[in-house]
Every structure is written in C-alpha cells, then in structure tokens.
Amino acid sequence: MAETEPRPSNFIRQIIDKDLASGLHESVHTRFPPEPNGYLHIGHAKAICLNFGIAQDYNGTCNLRFDDTNPDKENIDFVNSIKQDVKWLGFTWNGKERYSSDYFDQLYDFAIELIEKGLAYVDFSSPEQVRELRGTLTEAGKNSPYRDTSVQENLTHFEKMKAGEYKEGTCSLRAKIDMSSPFMCMRDPVIYRVKFAHHHQTGDKWCIYPMYDFTHCISDAIEGITHSLCTLEFQDNRRLYDWVIENITIDCVPRQYESSRLNLEYTVLSKRKLIQLVEEEHVQGWDDPRMPTIAGIKRRGYTPASIREFCKRIGVTKMDNMVEMSMLESCIRDELNVSAPRRMAVIDPVKVVIENFPSDENQNEPEWIEAPNHPNDENMGSRKIAFTKEIWIERDDFRESANKKFKRMTLDKGVRLRNAYVIYANRVDKDEQGNITTIFCEYDPQTLGKDPLERKVKGVIHWVSASQGKPAQFNLYDRLFTHPNPASQEDFASTINPDSLVVKNGYVEPSLGNVKVQERFQFERTGYFCADEASKQDTLIFNRTVELRDTWAKIGD
Ligand code: ATP
Ligand code: MG
Description:
Blueprint: H1 11-21, E1 29-32, H2 42-57, E2 61-66, H3 76-88, E3 98-99, H4 104-116, E4 120-123, H5 127-134, H6 151-162, E5 172-175, E6 190-194, E7 208-210, H7 212-223, E8 227-231, H8 237-247, E9 255-259, E10 263-264, H9 271-279, H10 294-300, H11 304-314, E11 322-323, H12 325-339, E12 342-343, E13 345-346, E14 349-354, E15 367-372, E16 382-387, E17 390-394, E18 415-417, E19 422-430, E20 436-444, E21 460-461, E22 463-465, E23 470-477, E24 501-508, E25 520-523, E26 527-531, E27 540-546, H13 551-556
Parallel strand pairs: 1-2, 2-3, 8-9, 10-11, 12-25, 14-20, 18-21, 23-27
Antiparallel strand pairs: 4-5, 5-6, 6-7, 13-24, 14-17, 15-16, 17-22, 18-19, 19-20, 23-24, 25-26, 26-27
Helix pairs in contact: 2-11, 7-8, 11-12
C-alpha cells in the first residue's frame, strides 16, 4: 500500500504551516466532534482522517469529543460504536474521550457571563413569534419584546429555567447580537433551551441544554483546540463562533476552518437518512455491507488502510462535489491486488465428471496439487488444492457451442483448469427444462503445468473439487441506490436498487474450511471477498467486497 507517501498538502495545512512559522501556535490541537446520534459513515472518515492525520503529521494531538447536546437523539450505543470505528480506522485520540457535557457547568457560567454583560436574554416569545420576528434573507428581523429585560431579571429567569420552573418551549436564552445581520445565525440565536430529557452522561442533572453553536466553540477553547475543522455548511456560523469566544472570558482563541463535505455517488451520507434505511428495514442493520457506514464498509471487506488511502486521494478543498464510487473501489482493489491470497470459488456451479480420471476404488483421489497463493509474490507461499473425478465449474464457463470469441469450454474446445489440467468436454446431461446438469469430460494427464502437445488451449477457468470443496454462500453486492444522487430525489428510498444484494450458493476450495472472520481473498476471476462474521465452519459466508475490474466503467464505453 502506498500509505508511506506523505499526505498531500491542502489549504488547511498551509494555514497551519503559516501559524506555526509565525509563532501564533507552538503546536497543533485538533478534535473530531461527532454527535452520538448514529453510526459513523464514510463522510466522517474524511473528517477523522483530516483531524487525526494533521495531528499525526504535525506531532500534535487530536481529541475525540462527543458533541452531546441533544439527549433525545443520542445514546451510549452510538458512543461506543463511534469509539470502535475511530480505533478501527487506526487512530488514537488524546487521553480519554471527551464530551461537551463535561463542560455543562462551565457553559452555564459562560451563559451567566453573557447575561451579566447584557449580551443574552431570556425570551418568552412563542416559537411562532420568534419565527415571525426573525425576518428573511431579504428582510431584516425585528427585536423581541423581551430583548431589553434587565440583567437582574434575566439572571432570575435563567436560574428558574435551570431549576425546571419553565415548561419546554415556553422560553429560551438568546444571545443579543443583531436582528438585522445579513447572517441569519447572528439574529439573536438561541443558546439554551428547556428540555426535560435524560442524558446518557449527565443523567437527570439538567433540564436546560446548550445549543450547538454556543457549545462547540467554548468546548474547543476549553480543550485548547487551535484549528477547529468543520464542513462548509458552518461557514456562516463562524461569525457566531467568533462572537461567543470574543465575548466570554477565556484564554484560548481557536479558529474555525471549513472544507467541503464528502458526497459519494449512489449512496446517502446523512445520519437521518441512514437511520431511516435501518428503521424501515431497507437494509439488514447499521453494518449491512451495502451501507456507507464504517461498520458496513468494514463488514464488506474494506481495510482501514484503503479508507485512509481514499481520504488521501479525494483531498481537502472548499469545492463541493460528488465523488464517484469507483474512487473508493479502486483503493481497496489496489490494496487487495497486492495483499489478498488467491483462492478458487465457484459461485454458480455446474458439475463436471472427468471420465478418464482414475476412479475412487483405485484410491488415487484426490490428487493434491500445489498452487501458488499469489501469481507475483512467492513469499505468499502456496496451498494444496484437491483435483478429483467430479468437480464444479462456473455454469457460464461452458457452452455447448459458441463462436470464436468465447474463450472458455465448448463441446469443440478444451479449456485449462486453473492450477491443474486441460479438459475436453464430450457430452452433457440435461434436466427436463433443458438445463445442463452434468458435463462429461476427459482430462489430458500430460498437461499439469504444460501445454498439450497437439492442440492449443487458450481459455483458463477456475474450479473446485466436488468431493473436497466446501459449500459456501456468496453475498454479491451492488449499489444500494439506482440514482447517482438519491438525496436529490423527493423520496430517496424509492430509488433503492432491488438487486443490491444477490445471494448465491456454491463451493470453495478445501483450504477455506477454517477461514477466519474478516479474512480477505481474491477468488480468481470473480472478485475480492471477505469472510462474513456469520461464517461458521459448516456454513461459510463470503461477502464480495468489490469485483476485479470496474464493471461500471465498462458500461460507459
Ligand atoms: P450527518 O449530516 O450525517 O448527520 P453531521 O455533520 O451531523 O452529519 P456530526 O456527528 O455532527 O455529523 O459530524 C462530526 C464531524 O464529521 C463534523 O465535523 C462534520 O462536519 C463531519 N462530517 C459529517 N459528515 C461529513 C461528510 N459527509 N464529509 C466530511 N465531513 C463530514
Ligand atoms: Mg451535526
């Protein structure tokens, strides 16, 4: 894997280089701030690689901080899955994981400070009133009738909010900024609201919770974050971020920098939509291998290195764009092409009987043949494959007759069995519907690793011994959606690809009998596969990570 190459520079690294050169900062402190309201997806992987990657490369630190200000939607299972995914991606956070809720006491005190400075007020306007007074993008907002309440009164009201004396939705604490600002987020944003909800970290201690914009910048400052990296939709909110930091008494001045989100074709990257896919059972769970979640991609067979490589290849810019799925696929393909041992598996089997192979009574069977694990890497060693009188081949590797373009086996044309002999078909048996049930062949015993003397044989096919091979289930995945940008559709779930999972039952070579979960292979000619966690000794299950070639690119030719 080309992972030893340095991560490429980008505009954020240029800013950091400048800040270090000018002495503004002595070291770099970043953070990854997920909200524990869902599983992480490949878009988060981009943010993880950016934040942890910068900390690594500049000898700085990166905190993992749960942005947990929405207790209704968050829970400890999500917290745990997120920790697991970050670790799996190969990153280590600085010290213990942190929670915005660790700072609820301090946040409360900073809110008091704003009130005391006349920069925050408790607003009892109804939600409709607040909406009405906010104005629009083209029209300035109007001041709330509560905007000029005295400091003392505001302090009392805020204390009562905290004490649980006001119902949800009856009041909120708002920053007093500018109702005519061109930035909507500066029109007296709500910074605290009443919410009687149990919190996974703070229990029932609080019935008021701070809003994201107030919480995030202060948490960054408390942790000494130097560069607070986020996505472009927070560009306007940077004004509010800076306003809060300027107006409270705190030493550290973190700066926020925005870069584009990852958008990936044929999938959705929004926790809300991913939750819908799980809850409506369009998929089999958060770790369904078709999901763009880290858990799903992992189960599909992707490696952490391939995801880091993907994040490196897509880079960091300020331009929103849509990344092709083939970008992700080529990362894992490039890695597995080098690292995955070769094996043979027949996914859609038809029986072949080799009539001139010495029969069982002679105790010759099976003939064990040594086969290399990798065509270009001797260090990967070899394994034994069983050649027997009855074998399985892929149904579409045989046609009774075909034109010259068909390179595999016909009644007129022999074919080489990969790692073994050349065989020639004599006749077939069919069932009542006319489907071939058995192909009767002869093999040429002189052709192990050698060309036949008289005839030329071009085609090579894979195969598995019928008596020694192991039955296996193959999960073949396709795009989860038929539309390249499902999120742009009114009902994104209506564009789900009905053929996104095709299950096949076939056979794998005997050496795979004791495969380990997550072990990855190239099944010759059929793709890269990974043993699924539901795989057991007697029910082997393999997930196809990716095909050997980009078949989507071919369609475009
Ligand atoms: P979603 O829209 O999927 O719910 P989010 O932004 O609400 O995502 P958070 O848990 O708040 O999810 O995100 C944690 C960090 O990951 C944030 O810094 C966020 O900007 C970043 N992030 C989330 N989605 C993407 C993405 N698609 N590309 C790049 N970064 C992302
Ligand atoms: Mg968020």
